[in-house]
Design goal:
- The chain has a single domain (about 5-205), classed as Spore Coat Polysaccharide Biosynthesis Protein SpsA, Chain A, CATH 3.90.550.10.
- Helix content is about 35%, strand content about 20%.
- The protein has helices at about 15-25, 40-55, 75-85, 105-115, 160-165, 180-190, 215-220, 220-230, and strands spanning about 5-10, 30-35, 60, 90-95, 100, 120-125, 145-150, 155-160, 195-205.
């Protein structure tokens, strides 16, 4: 029986998604991995279906549940929360530009089980050389193995405790936003839970590989901020 539900929201980026899925399937404990396909191309959809049985994940096509255009992160979180509560399991978000280690999921679960009032537990993100990278650059150079933080956690690789999932209904998430890392992090603290980042359980992160347009932030910032503010993309 699975000890945790792991979800991965996907919008194209098939190769990195399959890397993510293979890494999760190699976890040292049993997990239930669900990929939520958020209106990807037909090519990506076919690739996800083709590799499903070999790698061993469940696949949900959001087009079967909504006609709302991508991104549908709110719906993904709501569906995943319902799934986790029904099965009385914690919920781990691993995004499609992240590669976990075999022990990552177990490390996150072990820490959460041993920590009173745990709300969210995140793995620090690193590059291929093991150097802390976006979005956790704020913790670069920190020597502690575990950081107790009231600052927002990224959902690159973050575990939600069953207690927190039962304390806050994701149906209350703001419809006007695209991403909820900051809001949910703050809500966890507001409800009396503690948030932590594990510096001793790093995961490899390829920033924005799952949303290539965000690379414009570095290569063409004017275009990035035009899309962000004028087009209303990436609302947090």
């Amino acid at each position: 029986m699975a000890e945790v539900i792991v979800i991965t929201p996907v919008k194209n980026s098939l190769e990195t998604t399959l890397d993510t899925a293979r890494a999760i399937s190699g976890s040292s404990i049993r997990v239930k991995h669900v990929i939520f396909n958020d209106f990807s191309t037909e090519e990506t959809k076919a690739g996800l279906e083709l590799n499903q049985s070999e790698i061993g994940y469940e696949l949900v096509h959001l087009e079967d549940h909504t006609d709302h255009p991508s991104p549908n992160y709110k719906l993904v979180l709501q569906m995943a929360q319902k799934m986790a509560i029904e099965q009385k399991l914690p919920l781990l978000v691993v995004e499609s530009d992240v590669v976990v280690k075999p022990e990552t999921v177990a490390d996150l679960l072990d820490f959460q089980k041993s920590t009173a009032k745990s709300g969210l537990v995140g793995s620090v993100t690193v590059d291929e050389r093991g150097v802390v990278n976006f979005p956790y650059l704020k913790f670069k150079g920190v020597k502690e193995q575990v950081i107790d933080t009231s600052r927002s956690l990224s959902f690159c690789c973050t575990l939600f405790s069953a207690d927190f999932l039962n304390a806050y209904d994701f149906k209350g998430l703001d419809e006007a936003k695209d991403w909820y890392d900051t809001f949910i992090s703050k809500k966890s603290v507001e409800l009396g839970f503690k948030n932590h980042v594990l510096m001793n359980a790093p995961v490899w992160h390829r920033p924005h590989a799952s949303r290539p347009w965000k690379q414009l932030k570095y290569s063409n910032p004017l275009k990035y901020y035009f899309l962000k503010f004028w087009k209303g993309m990436d609302k947090i």
